[in-house]
Amino acid sequence: MSEPTALESLAELRMEIDRIDGEMHDLLIARGEIIDTLIAVKARQGGGSAFRPGREADMMRVIAARHRGRLPLDTVESIWRVIISTFTFVQSHYSVHADLSGGDAAMRDSARFHFGFTVPLLGHASPGETIAGVAGSARPDGGGDLGMLRAAWRAGDGRWWESLAAEGAPKIIARLPFVERPDHPASLPVFIISNPLAEAAARDVALFSAQWPSGAPDDAAFRALSCECLARVESPEGASLLVSAPGDWSAEKFAAALNPASQNVAWIGSHAERFALPSKDQ
Question: Quick check: pTM over 0.85?
Answer without folding.
Answer: yes
